[in-house]
Write a structure and sequence with these properties.
The structure is a single chain. The chain is of the alpha+beta class. 18% of the residues lie in helices and 36% in strands. The protein is built from 2 helices and 7 strands. The chain has a 4-stranded mixed sheet with strand order 4-1-6-5, with helices on both faces. A 3-stranded antiparallel sheet has the order 3-2-7, with no helix packed on it. The model has no long low-confidence stretch (mean pLDDT 90).
């Protein structure tokens, strides 16, 4: 099968004043668990920053501001969910406009009944590329650890 289109994903990395990194635990196809950074797919006619702000409103019901670009995919990555798509992922550092109220949980994801997405902070000392599941997220996590 050949690649027929791009799938552009935009993700935000938020490190709070306690040096904790916000991650999203999600149940995806076949109830597989993934831990990733908040964000999602770029929509036609939308810029990457606008996409990220929209995704944070939709997923976390919160307002954020983008503070700087962190990383953009610089290699070929085929989508694990649609082998006709090439993924391009863009990562930005975020700051909340208002304080967030997500629980800190270093013990892993928690999925209450009927919830397929959970946000949590991971303490910096426990955060590494192994914290996240997706291949490009692992690279962004390594870039973050080197930069901060």
């Amino acid at each position: 099968m050949s690649i027929t289109s791009f799938n552009i994903r935009v993700y935000g990395i938020l490190v709070n004043d306690k040096k904790q990194v916000l991650v999203s635990d999600e149940l995806i196809l076949n109830n597989d668990e993934v831990t990733k950074f908040p964000g999602g797919g770029l929509e036609l006619g939308e810029g990457p920053i606008d996409c990220l702000i929209r995704e944070c409103r939709e997923e976390m019901n919160t307002e954020v501001k983008v503070t700087e670009h962190l990383y953009t995919t610089d290699f070929f990555q085929q989508s694990a969910f649609n082998e006709q798509h090439q993924l391009i992922s863009i990562y930005y550092l975020l700051a909340p406009v208002f304080p967030l109220s997500y629980p800190v949980n270093n013990n892993g994801p928690v999925f209450p009944d009927h919830v397929s997405e959970n946000f949590r902070f991971v303490d910096w000392d426990y955060f590494s590329p192994d914290t996240v599941t997706l291949p490009i997220d692992k690279i962004a996590a390594a870039v973050l650890k080197q930069r901060l």
